[in-house]
Amino acid sequence: MRPTLTLTALALMAAPAAAQTAAPADVAAGTTLDISATGKVSRVPDVATIRAGVVAQAPAAAAALADQAGRMARVLAALRRAGIAPRDIATAQVGLQPQYRYADNQPPAVTGYQATNSVAIRFHDIARAGPILDALVAAGANQIDGPDLSVDQPDAALDEARTQAMATARGRADLYARAAGLHVRRIVSIGEGAVEAGSPRPPMMFARAAAAQDATQVAAGEKELSVTVNVRFLLD
């Protein structure tokens, strides 16, 4: 957002009119300047989230559910063997939907059922993401999103971004004041705008043969965390 400079003109007016329209004395006595500034910091992500599930199809609903349940049991067992704690595994979705065949001038005909079941898995050792993905596929998971990488406790990093944003705002205020032949008297108000705590990378659909020779690799990279502040300064 481009900074905006607002000038407050001072005029001599009659006492009765001034009594009706006067702004607060601390603001009306100078020029106001509104600055929007963003502070940004980078952190290496320290938590990964994977969404893994099973999709099964069968002519009958009960058969589709039974097939899905058996596969999901193997997936959950694989997660336990990989050392994922039960508290870090949460059901994300369970569904059963009919499958239709469409033909011209005929009503849709049910051809079977599709059962789905997925869980969200969260863990802190990002280096384990690749082996966990491989273990899920080997156990029968056929629908996987992730990993989504994020910063688990971003508060300290966000505070650093806030400090940076305020310093940037003050620097810009001084610049505008000098250009206008004024100086910054004080801050009138501070408001926090957008806060971005390190958005995860877009999910990727992952599926490969369990017998593949190469292990899946996951690179953590960095996440950008940012805070935008809106500051009003009083100049004179």
Strands ordered across the widest β-sheet = 1-2-8-7
At the fold tier of CATH, the topology name of the domain at 47-153 and 199-225 is: Alpha-Beta Plaits
Supply the number of helical segments. 5
Outline the biggest β-sheet.
4 strands, antiparallel
Structural class per helix/strand content? alpha+beta
CATH class of the domain at 47-153 and 199-225: Alpha Beta
Helix content: 25-40%
Secondary-structure element order, N to C: EHHEEHEEHEHEE
The beta-strand count equals: 8
Low-confidence stretches: 1-23, 200-212
CATH architecture group name of the domain at 47-153 and 199-225: 2-Layer Sandwich
Distance separating the two termini: 24 Å
Strand content: 35-45%
Give Rg in angstroms.
Answer: 29 Å
Description of the structure:
The protein is α+β, with helices and mostly antiparallel strands and 236 residues long. It has a domain at 47-153 and 199-225: Alpha-Beta Plaits (2-Layer Sandwich). It contains five helices and eight strands. The strands form two sheets. The protein has a four-stranded antiparallel sheet. It has a four-stranded antiparallel sheet with strand order 4-5-3-6. Helix 3 packs antiparallel against helix 4. The longest helix is centred in the last third of the chain and has 25 residues, at 155-179. The chain is elongated, with a radius of gyration of 29 Å.
